[in-house]
Amino acid sequence: MIPPRPPGYGGSRELFPRYTGSAFDAVTPAVVAASLTVNSLLTPERAARMVEQKMFDAALPGLDDVLGRLVDAAFEAETASAYEGQIKTAVEAVVIDGLQRLASSASMMEVRAQATAALMDIHAHVSEHADVPHAAFMAQEIERFMSRPHAPAEPITTPDAPPGAPIGQPAMGWLDGLGIGEPALDWLDVREPWCSWEGSGGY
Questions:
Q1: What pTM did the predictor assign?
Q2: Helix, coil or strand: residue 138
Q3: Radius of gyration of the chain (CA)
Q4: Exposure string for 33-63, b = 16+ CB within 10 A, e = fewer
Q5: To the nearest 10°, the Cα dihedral for 150, 41, 142, 101?
Q6: If both were cysteines, with which of 13, 34, 191, 194 could 94 make a disulfide (CB 3.0 to 4.6 Å apart)?
Q7: DSSP result, 81-98
Q8: φ/ψ of residue 146, rounded to 5
């Protein structure tokens, strides 16, 4: 229902990217939507927080739980048409790309380990359908990622300890209400009268 843009109407930032040249692309809007979700979900910092929150409370979802739900949603979805099938394939590729970025760039080792485990689970799943071109290609992509050459080994940098309070000053007492060297001030009592009606007794 959406025709190609007429001659003289150039592109703009309001248009979806297209694989199809001048014609509207029915697949890339789904790729964009999936990328927004997956890229926000699979940030290294959020992934590390999920690892640690499950460490303290097993009832909370951990990274492994979220990755499992994500992979199931992408790879186990039912499709009712060739169009939905192509959308599903595009979303699967977005999930694989997101997991590869997480497995290769996260600072926390456990995050890299769980992302890699999710990729291996996907590889086992798609390898069962090697007669399907896109499944065979995804399996090869994961194999290439796993066997990629790595940079020469470098010493692992561990997190440094914070420097602590300045010499001659006590530490900040966040729990006992003390600041650096003196009781914390009540800002409600010492603030400037920024509003014109303050102190005038009316509005």
A1: 0.71
A2: helix
A3: 26
A4: ebbeebeebbebeebbebbeebeeeeeeebb
A5: -20
A6: 34
A7: SHHHHHHHHHHHHHHHHH
A8: -65, -30
**Residue 203 confidence (pLDDT) above 50:** no
d(CA 58, CA 141): 34
The label of the residue with tokens 């999920």 reads: 50
Amino acid at 171: A
The Cα 145–Cα 185 span in angstroms is 56
Degrees to nearest 5, angle at CA 26 with 123 and 127:
10
Q: What angle do CA 84, 88, 90 make, to 5 degrees?
A: 115
- Give the number of residues written for the chain: 203
Which tokens hold the place of 137? 């290609």
What is the SS3 assignment for 106?
coil
Q: Residue 187's pLDDT band (boundaries 50, 70, 90)?
A: very low
Q: Which residue type, as a one-letter code, is found at position 31?
A: V
- Output the pLDDT for position 130: 85
Query: Are the C-beta atoms of 85 and 27 separated by less than 8 Å?
Result: no
